[in-house]
Amino acid sequence: MTDARTGAATAPRADATTAPRTDATTASRTGATTAPRTVAATPPRVGPHVLVLADSLAFHGPTRAEPSSEPRLWPNVAAAALGGRASVFAREGWTARDAWWAVGGDPALWSLVPTLDAVVLAVGSMDSMPSPLPTYLRLGLRHLRPPALRRAARGAYLRAQPALARTLTHLGGRPLALPPALTVRYLDRILGALRTLRPGLPAVAVLPAGHRAAAYGQVHPGRPRTAAAIRAWATGAGIPLVDLYALTFHTLLDPASNPDRMHWSWPTHATVGRAMANAIAAALTPPPAAALGTADGIAHGTAHGTAHGTASPSPAAPGPSRASASRGPR
After folding, report:
1. What mean pLDDT do residues 257-268 have?
2. 155-180: burial string, b at 16+ Cβ within 10 Å, e else
3. Are 213 and 126 in contact (CB under 8 A)?
4. pTM beyond cutoff 0.85
5. What are the CA-CA distances from residue 267 to residues 219, 254, 270, 271, 282 (Å)?
6. What is the CA 278 to chain-centroid distance, rounded?
7. Residue 296 and residue 239: Cα distance in Å, rounded?
């Protein structure tokens, strides 16, 4: 066909002489029978979607902090072992209280809840660290003005912290970054809030990791108390526990570990990831009674600390509404 104005050849119009459209509109207009459109099926999900609430141990490698997508980090090792994926919400220094604030105030986290298959409460290690200054004062240093004063105050505190931590150890080991009673209260609130939206959501928790950090005077007097409180809480809820101390403390002096003597080598991340995968699998599918026991770094929370299973909803923590969560804990 030629354009009458320019003489240029043009493509033929899609009229009755061309191939008919094969959609429902054409079919209803012409009466022709057409084959139904084929809609691509959504591929089935493979493996569980796991929410990980954690501190820097979840994203710090042997030399630096890493993107959460780094496959060698333990959350991704665990997810890969299960054929699933991990969504990590973590920051340096996070305690159980910080994780609670994230659950109550982060819309990005809320959007994931309908797709979750399990949650890992990997906070508690920083809760047990010595805190010579009360937490609100220590964290408030970042808000000092002018900047020169802020830098001077922070530098003075960091220089004094090792000696102060050792002194506090001889005086009973207090204060901690977060008292054990508050750690378990916030863990319970987190689980209760998530289970309000996802009833019966399986959960795994951790026992605090250890450290040999010079920045904390190489002392850690609060870890046993925090570990005992978390274990007792998990016992009541029937939640599997991964003992980070048992899995990692002996590796902190390895040449491959981080020089800060707090964060782990890649082989240690792999070890923790495998243990976490076992714990998540246990939470997702409770084993028969004959198979109950402790293995691969899992300390199972039951009346005798030896069995594992899916955690049941906690009646003491019904979960806050978003309105109340935005105000923070009372």
Report:
1. 97
2. eeeeeebbebbbebbeeebeebbbbb
3. no
4. no
5. 25, 11, 5, 6, 23
6. 16
7. 16
